[in-house]
Amino acid sequence: MLSLLFFSQGIYAQENTQVNDKNQRTTKLPADSDCVKANNANKVKTDDIGWMEKLHSTVSDSVFQSAVWFDNFFIDENSEQESPKTTARIRLGWEPKARDLGEFDTRFRIKVKLPHLKDKVDLILSDDDDLDQSYLPLESVNAKPNNENDHFSAAVRITHSKSSNRRIESRIGISGGDIFVRAKHERRLNWSENHSFKIEPSVYYFLDDGLGAKLLMEYDYQIDKTSQLRVNYSVRGSNSFSGIRWKHGFYRLKQLQQNAASIMALQVEGERNGENGFVIDKYTLSYRYRFSAVKEWLFFEIEPFVEWPEEENYTTTPGLALRVEGYFSKGY
Q1: What is the 3-state secondary structure (H, E, C) of the chain?
Q2: pLDDT tens sequence across 175-195
Q3: pLDDT score at 5
Q4: CATH architecture type of domain 5-331
Q5: Could you give the C-alpha distances from 127 to 61, 112, 279, in angstroms and in order?
Q6: Which residue among 22, 23, 82, 179 is the one 20 to 30 A from 152 at the CA level?
Q7: Is the predicted pLDDT of residue 41 greater than 60, yes or no?
Q8: Ramachandran category for residue 70: left, alpha or beta (phi over 0 → left; psi -120 to 50 → alpha)
Q9: How far apart are CA 226 and CA 9, in angstroms?
């Protein structure tokens, strides 16, 4: 199947925990994997590189040294020193739309794999919406901008079981000043060379919001080596709101060049069994173009979109998102 890693995962709110089957094709795209090449910049003498490479080296080294310090707490006296792996992403964006031209978006995300905990424990620090259960994989434009001041989250992720088509994990941490725990089971089924289906149930508990649960289902159809159709659906409920929230996503993913790809998306979200019965909150139609330029670790996005929100009586609301992201990685 088409990997399109830079759209999955983690890219906005969702970390890429998709389990790839051996039948999946590997397509080279501007993704986190390209950070491996970018690491070679760290081997160049600082006297011979420009300010951008110095910045990349400084950020990568700073995150890596912090990870080494943290990992040292788990070393046995008779164990050999091992190197952790760190990845960091910093994103700046401007997402103006009709009646709201001042929508700016800044995100960071740091993930650390700790070898002395048998690579089953990750430390994740971010200010993105990775813990927001309202998001779908591949979703980019914010569903409902969060105006709270405290977005920071820190979590320890424990992988209990992992195979080519199955993953069980749990998290414990703090997000927006609220302590939480979450457990998730991901299962993927593949048949022939063109079809794939994923089911992902999860349960979570926040001290302030109470107990909640979510079910995500996703179907992929491989058109050819460079194109894929994807349909996903999520439904969730929680003590923090009445009714059941649902969301559909329809996508066409396309690799355009060696360092560029696009995604066309239609998303529909709403609520049922709540105070207002069945309601469609918003329709969103978008086209996202992503490419790598200037440096291998630097990525740009251009995404025109149109929204029809219920709160605006489904008035057509056009917008344009402009983003730049830097990836920083170091370790084994």
Answers
A1: CCCCHHHCCCCCCCCCCCCCCCCCCCCCCCCHHHHHHHHHHHHCCHHHCCHHHHHHHHHHHHHHHHHHHHHHHHCCCCCCCCCCEEEEEEEEEECCECCECCCEEEEEEEEEECHHHCCCEEEEEECCCCCCCCCCCCCCCCCCCCCCCCCCEEEEEEEEEECCCEEEEEEEEEECCEEEEEEEEEEEEEECCCEEEEEEEEEEEECCCEEEEEEEEEEEEEEECCEEEEEEEEEEEECCEEEEEEEEEEEEEEEEECCEEEEEEEEEEEEEEECCEEEEEEEEEEEEEEEECCCCCEEEEEEEEEEEEHHHCCCCEEEEEEEEEEEEEEEC
A2: 878 899 999 999 999 998 899
A3: 38
A4: Beta Barrel (2.40)
A5: 21, 15, 30
A6: 82
A7: no
A8: alpha
A9: 19
Condensed to tens digits (0 to 9), the pLDDT of residues 216-266 reads 999 999 999 999 999 999 999 988 888 899 999 999 999 998 889 999 999
pLDDT band at 19 (very low <50, low <70, confident <90, very high): very low
Cβ atoms of 331 and 119 closer than 8 Å? no
Prediction pTM value: 0.73
Quick one: pLDDT band at residue 301, thresholds 50, 70, 90? very high
* C-alpha torsion 187→232→223→304, nearest 10: -140
Strand partners, 169: 159, 184
Written as six digits, the tokens of 168 are: 């069980």
